[in-house]
Amino acid sequence: MTVCFDGYSRGYSHGLSHDEAKAVQADQAHRVGTLLRALDLDGDGIISADEIDRATESLLALDLDGDGQLSEDECGGPFRYPGGGRTSAIYRILDLDGDGVITAADIADAPARLRRLDRLGKGHLTPADNGMGGNAVRQNWFDGPAHFLANQDTLRSYVLEDTGEVLPGTDPRQDPSFHLVQEHANAMDVWVARDLYLLDSQGERVHRWPARNHASETVSARLRDDGLLIRTSCPGIWLDTLAFPVGAHGIVSIEEPDGTVVWQWELFEPGRRVLHHSFDPMPNGNILVTMYDGRTFDEAVDLGWIEQDREVLLRPPDLTRWWTESILELEPNLETGETRVVWEWHSIDHLVQDADADKPFYGEIGPGCRKIDLNYTRYENYRFNMGQVMHVNSVSYDPARDQILLSSAMHGELWIIDHATTTEEAAGPAGDLLYRCGNQQAHKGGPVKTFDWQHDIGWIPPGRPGAGNVLVFNNGARSAGDLPAPHPKRLQFGDGHSEILELSMPVDDEGAWTWDLDDPLNAAEIVWSYNADGSNGWFSPFMSGAARLPNGNTVTALGFNKQLREVTPEGETVMDLRPGGAGRVFRAVPIDADHPGLACLGISGR
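Predicted structure:
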């Protein structure tokens, strides 16, 4: 049985007129507010301290069948899509396991759980506490505004059973690789998804690891040659991540095939530092991780940042921070469980601004600039920015050059930095960008912007066709009328398309990257692409990834609707699969059929 929601396009449902769709949305918004209305006894839009104390009694009043618990229908359902009631934070905090039932134990614990929503310690709950913590400060999220419901990814369908246009194992041109699939919840935690499994080339789940912690957006996994698994996860629940920008997780661990943890490192300091998004294992056993580094807006202004309108930050002002990026190299000790941070690079050491000569980082910005303009990002152009100015969503290590490749989605660029430095050297000029491309606007070098909210920028490894080149999942978020220029507002949910680009970047006689300041891609050449013209109807406004397979095919993951696709160099689809179940996948993680770690799992590869 396939279960899916019929979806919205450009703000209204297929098959309905605009007015009809708005009526449907208003009905659903009213249903989502059922729990709020039950708790808000005086109807003033605020759940007071006394009303929180009486929450158990109030919720039991909704128990129409007298079984001591609340079904989805008793909480306002049926909803138009799976988990629809969970757009309410009240629903999410009561139904933590996401099974659609608020049990007797959940009801009894309701006052304590509701107080957790009071993140600012006000003693009562306001509309801001019932949403993601964003522009709820200006909108009544208790009732779920129709335009919000119409445009959120929660309305995109998911399937309960595997489906797809070309199922695994049906086309002989498919590579025999396996795939690690790590499910996770989206930012609104509409679905509780934590499953991690290995998918073989026939689409069979041949190994599972026990679920661990909260699987926030961007958690992923990698298999080591010795069969140990490296994966990321998140302490607490979705509520705890709201102190950080999107993509935060905070834990990286190494586990046995049965899930036994042999090493773990946690960095989760609300308002200050947290691990997020990507990691990359290194040949020496160390792990590169990305870290958000937070400061107050006042501290940012003192550095030369031009303060912007906080009303577009999708965060209550009390929780707002200004976030830059850092890269850490962790050395795990599997015998003692200890961790050493053996190398660091901090973007704060490599900023530039040309707005105020009396502030730090003052300098010239233009063609050839090897520093990062701290005033480039305009918050009104980015949904879900939460005070970020860079949003580095991938890190990839090249051992041959001892260099690190980074993807800054907000700058629309790939950056290369030198790892062949000490931490002290990396804080100086040696840590400036060795190379950048993707967006001339980011350094006032010209008008052309090629990348838009791109993800999973990574080196193609040795032994693969295109080895040494770089793959880019260019999310695009473009609308048909804007081609080839990206839409000025990021993360659109209407007519858009994504593409995969393979870049070849030339070097000079001394092996340094060649800069061509008049070239929109700074001398990089697009040597292969997929869906560059949008003809495949293929789009994900966020997350997602691509990887080159041993036979030359490329596997992709659309994070938006949890879709794996493998294409040939000619762009022909040889595998198209939507793994059943709730949640999403951050990116495609292929495992070669002859990977030595498979034998350690008791799996016969090639």
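Summary: The CA atoms of residues 508 and 514 lie 6 Å apart.
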